[in-house]
């Protein structure tokens, strides 16, 4: 199994998530569980997939709060023996999360700028002026300096982040197979392009779980990343 592919279980509840994981079987070894499933049994599903099925788990909580609260939340989540946890990339949040994860194998991934946002969205949120690409890379650098084990960034920033001194894990959402609808993502690339740019893992959701044959869709992505198309 190629754990570079992380399938996002962006489904209504844990039962639907478990059914999809059973459909995918041994094709997929790494799953993302996010806020959308938190009240639908997401933590229970994460534990079941990890402990009973031997899957790797990426808990996408994107935590943001004062340091003491983030530290306490991460300390509680670390007891579930999961693999990745996201927090917002502000240095004080990253430092607190690392304190909370101390003594565990949980990797703290810092969110740079969401792949569903563009410069107009940042303007609407009163975010600092500047090129979105440059801001993303700067946030990644600051997160690494604060101790992050990795970052979440669009595939379009992966190459520049990989070139940073002390670069660590790079996980890229906003990945769509060629011809797939972008959905709510605005900065997208294909699986092969994301990995070629320097990503360690790609996150794919709807192109798998919306497919009439999720297992075949996942296998097609895995085939692409195992044998990327040659540049002409």
What does this structure look like?
With 232 residues, the protein is α/β, with parallel strands linked by helices. 41% of the residues lie in helices and 16% in strands. It is built from 10 helices and 8 strands. The longest helix has 14 residues, at 132-145. It is globular, with a radius of gyration of 17 Å.
Please give a handful of descriptors for the protein shown:
232 residues; alpha/beta; eight-stranded parallel beta barrel; 10 helices; 8 strands; 41% helix; globular
Q: How would you summarize what this structure contains?
A:
Helix content is 41%, strand content 16%.
Write the layout of secondary structure elements.
Layout: E1 5-8, H1 14-24, E2 30-34, H2 42-51, E3 56-63, H3 67-78, E4 84-88, H4 91-101, E5 107-111, H5 119-124, H6 132-145, E6 150-152, H7 155-162, E7 169-172, H8 191-196, E8 201-204, H9 206-209, H10 214-226
Parallel strand pairs: 1-2, 1-8, 2-3, 3-4, 4-5, 5-6, 6-7, 7-8
Helix pairs in contact: 1-2, 3-4, 6-7
């Amino acid at each position: 199994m190629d754990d570079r592919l992380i399938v996002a279980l962006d489904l209504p509840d844990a039962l639907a998530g478990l059914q999809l994981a059973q459909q995918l079987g041994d094709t997929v070894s790494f799953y993302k569980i996010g806020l959308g499933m938190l009240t639908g049994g997401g933590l229970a599903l994460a534990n079941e997939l990890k402990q009973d099925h031997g899957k790797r788990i990426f808990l996408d909580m994107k935590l943001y709060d004062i340091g003491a609260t983030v530290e306490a939340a991460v300390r509680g989540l670390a007891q579930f023996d999961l693999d990745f946890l996201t927090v917002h990339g502000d240095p004080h949040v990253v430092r607190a999360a690392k304190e909370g994860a101390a003594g565990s194998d949980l990797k703290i991934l810092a969110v740079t700028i969401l792949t569903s946002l563009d410069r107009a969205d940042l303007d609407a949120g009163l975010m600092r002026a500047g090129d979105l690409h440059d801001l993303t890379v700067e946030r990644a650098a600051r997160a690494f300096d604060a101790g992050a084990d990795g970052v979440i960034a669009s595939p379009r920033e992966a190459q520049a982040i990989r070139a940073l001194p002390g670069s660590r894990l790079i996980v890229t959402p906003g990945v769509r197979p060629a011809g797939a609808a972008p959905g709510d993502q605005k900065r997208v690339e294909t699986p092969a392009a994301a990995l070629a740019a320097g990503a360690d893992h790609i996150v794919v959701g709807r192109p798998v779980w919306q497919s009439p044959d999720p297992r075949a869709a996942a296998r097609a992505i895995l085939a692409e990343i195992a044998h990327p198309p040659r540049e002409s």
